[in-house]
Amino acid sequence: MTDKNKVVLYGFWACPFVKSVELALKIKGIPFAYVEEDFLNKSPELLKFNPVYKKVPVLVHNERPICESAIILEYIEEVWNNNGPSLLPQDPFKRSQIRFWVDFVKNQTEGEAQEKAMEEVKERLKVVEEQGLKSLLAEGSPFVNGDELGYLDIGMLTILGRYKIYEEFFGMKIMEEEEIPIVFSWLNRLIEHPIAKELGAPPKEKILGLLHITRQRFLQSPVAA
C-alpha cells in the first residue's frame, strides 16, 4: 500500500459500525491499516480527523478523513467501484430500497432500557421479514446482494451477528425461526460467510462484560430515574 493510496481505519472493537466498514473494505479487497481507539483516552489523531463527533469509525484515505459509517460505505463504493463486487445495485430504485432498509435496521431506540430496545428489535425484524426480504431476496440468492455480501447484508450482519450472545445476556429470544424464518436463515448464512468468519468476533466474555457496563451506566443515568 503506497502512501498515495494509504487507507487507515480508526475503530473500537465492539462498535458494529466499525465492523461494517471493515467488512466493506475486505469485500472490496482494499488493503488498510487499523487503529484501535480507547474511548476513555481518545487519540489526538481521532480528535483531529473527527473534531465534530469525536467518535469512530473514521476512514482516512490519503490523509483525508471520512466520518460516519453510512457515508464511509458510500465512499468506498464510489472510489473503489472497480474493486470486487458492488455493494449496491446499479438500479436507482433498488439502491433507494436498500438504503431505506439499512436505515430501518440501524435505527434502534435510543435512551431506553436495553431490554425494551431488544423488544423493539424483535418487532422491527418482523417488519423486515414481511415488508423487506420477501421482495429483496431474489429466489435462489443467499444474500440480498446476490452471491456476495452487499450494503444491507453488511448492516444486518454487523448489528445482529452476535444475536446468540444478546439472547444469553437478556434471557430472551431475539431470533425465533418459527416467527421470522427468512430473516433467521439469511442472518445465519451471513454469519457463516467466509469473510465474516475471517474477521471473527470478539470473545463472548468481553461482549458480555461490555453489556453489563452499559446496563449499569444506564441505570445510573438520569434517563433511567
Q: Mind explaining what this structure looks like?
A:
This protein is α+β, with helices and mostly antiparallel strands. The chain is 53% helix and 8% strand. The chain contains ten helices and four strands; from the N terminus they run E-H-E-H-E-E-H-H-H-H-H-H-H-H. The chain has a four-stranded mixed β-sheet with strand order 2-1-3-4, covered by helices on one side. The longest helix is centred in the middle third of the chain and has 23 residues, at 114-136. The model has no long low-confidence stretch (mean pLDDT 88).
Secondary-structure map:
Blueprint lengths: L6 E5 L4 H13 L4 E4 L7 H6 L8 E4 L2 E4 L1 H11 L12 H15 L7 H23 L14 H10 L2 H8 L10 H11 L2 H6 L4 H17 L5
Parallel strand pairs: 1-2
Antiparallel strand pairs: 1-3, 3-4
Whole-number mean pLDDT: 88
Proportion of beta-strand residues? 5-15%
Radius of gyration: 18 Å
- How do the strands line up in the largest sheet? 2-1-3-4
> Could you give the count of β-strands?
4
